[in-house]
Amino acid sequence: MTPAMIDDTTLYAVLAPFAAAVVAPALTRWFKHNAAWPLALVPALIFLHFTGFIEPVSQGERFVASMAWAPSYGVNFSVYVDGLSTLFALLISGIGTFIILYAGGYLKGHPQQGRFFSFLFMFMGAMLGLVLCNNLISLFIFWELTSVTSFLLIGFDHLRAASRRAAIQALVVTGGGGLALLAGFILIISSTGEIEMSVLLASPDIIKDSGLYLPIFLLVLGGAFTKSAQFPFHFWLPNAMEAPTPVSAYLHSATMVKAGVYMLMRTQPLLGGTPEWTTVLPIFGGLTLLVGTILAVRQTDLKLMLAYTTVASLGLLVMLTGTSHEKALEGAVLYLLAHSLFKGALFMVAGTIDHEAGTRDITKLGGLRAAMPITCIAAALAALSMAGLPPFIGFIAKEVLYYGTTGWLELFGLPLTITAVVGNALMLVIAAAVAIKPFYGPKVDTPKHAHEGPVLLFAGPVVLSVLGLGLAVIAHTTGELFVGPTLSSLMGEPTTVELHLWPTYIIGNIPLYLSLVTIGLGIVLFTQIDRLRSLIAGILTAIGWGPDKGFDQFVAGIVGFSGWITRRLQSGKMQTYMILTFIFAGLAVLLPGYLTNSFPAMPKLPEYRFYEWGILLIAVLGLIAVLIAKTRLTAIVSLGVQGFAVALIFMMFGAPDLSFTQFMVETLSVVILALVMTRLNLSPSDHRPLTAALGTGLVAVAVGLGLSLTLLAITQQPFDRQLSDFFTEYSRSIAHGRNIVNVILVDFRGIDTLGEIAVVVLAGLCVLALIRIRTKPDKPAEAADQGATQARPAEAR
């Protein structure tokens, strides 16, 4: 089905958060502590706009809208609305509404709250553009913009070294992956000739048949794995918890970290189903699931526990997407929805506990149920969904994904099922720890007097956790409106989904049995959580080195290598700079011809007249004089002979104005250089060892030969008279000048000429500065003191 064209309203919806980012600081100053309410209207209205697509998208319709951006390069600001992009847009704007409200309460009274709102809205707009953009280049721009804006949000508390390190780490890892993604997009465009995602999706085998599938697959994977924190790039996400809790709840649970998963799901019809896809993704996804859950059990900080389980959840999503199996993909979509709800709620709960009790360490928390009853209920509901217990959306997602792993009769079917069971059991352990440890048991004295937070702090957790229950109760509708259309996008064809809250049969229901095993294993592990935490901590201590430390070593190595190469190349000697410049210039003009075997044919030697031989002889004599000159001043004067020979050639071929200009330039150059050489205290001789002379001579010959061959290649091409005819026709009628060369310099390319004049003036000023340098001999100390005494005014003596 061809996508239907829609008006530009959706384009404006993507741009609306950027407009809100501009006015957010002013609104924060005007409304003081109530700025979150009017600001939250922006994502709320965006959410309402995208709810209008739910019904038509569920019926299989797709929509596109486009606005010219850089049409000469084929780059448009265009959107593609289908099930996948609609689901993500609803999550981004819906959860974003409560994040704005939550930030208003969490950062109440903060002097930089307006700046924080501005950064948050910029990220929201970048994320909306990422999931909605149809054009590959504009998609990449928004992709990198999420990295830049997350850098600003993670490093919001920039006075803390830990925040700055976490922000730089996230930017380096995700930004590097973004460059890999750009390379993949360029290969897609060059191999297919298409730049719009909707066109590519209409021909799903176009990349697989292009012959560049493997490099495209690896490059897209590089972008997705770094953004979604897949092992071994998982370390940046937990470190990003240095950001304020609203950032953690939004960027690193429901939006940014899902960008890599979105990219894999979006390209599933294009790249999925191959042996490479169904091998690499399940292996790395399963490994990330286990690593994330194991590291989560080790933690005692609520945010870090949730952060590592986010890493694990992303691994689970990648693992399921990598199967390319319909039921596993259905489980991935369901779990994507469930995770966004319960993890966003739990992050906000963790922030509220920290905000009202003064700590996030579960070993220092307990008995908060009476002091924070609403937060306790929200935490319980969200944790039940995270644990995969009925009657929550997390339970349905777990059941469906088990259907997918057990029904995938490939090599990794059984290992993936075992991995999913172990990972989900450890998820239950963390969910129970987050929901039970802070709120139940004996009351513990906390750094602050714990009490329930304001409505801005508990509105988001309550709504998101209740949604996890409500969407499960209406499971059939959830499947029709959200899961089915999204699954159709992943499969590349219309697909129907039928969800049930309760299993339709018991006997022989393997996914149900696996759920019971998961719950039982999770309960057993939770009862031994302290012992398990100590065991994992001991193993990790014994291992010692990890990717996080490796990142620091990598950065230190890059800095050290940069310093070494800088000391070698930036030695402070002009001679070194000139030699390096000419070496690379010679390579630039010689290597392409050598590698492509496209050197020009050597022309026949023309029959010169006697005066032409004379000009050539003058040039050769000038060159010999430069080479055998005993002093630099003699070499400079001899060098001017070359310029005079060129000026004579210009005159001989009927260009007296160029000849006159060349005579003037050479004369002035010799005079100025001679003047500088005589005024500066430089060695008058220039004797170098034979090896140095041979080396510089080789570089000079290479550059001269390369330029000569380049000019020969140009002159042997057919002459294109388009520019010549244009200037001949319009120099008189437009510029009112008969001298075509002067008209070109002054009118047609007057800005270039102005730039050249500016360069000459700057060079003249530098020469003047060198001339004015004076070397003053040091005075003896006594004489200096005496002179200072004599110069002192009489009043001061």
TrEMBL record:
Keywords: Antiport, Cell membrane, Ion transport, Membrane, Transmembrane, Transmembrane helix, Transport. Residues 698-778 form the MrpA C-terminal/MbhE domain. It is a multi-pass membrane protein. It comes from the Bacteria. Pfam families: MbhD, MbhE, Proton_antipo_M, Proton_antipo_N. Coiled coil: none annotated. Residues 618-680 form the MrpA C-terminal/MbhD domain. Its main location: membrane. NCBIfam families: PRK12647.1 (NF009287). This is Monovalent cation/H+ antiporter subunit A.
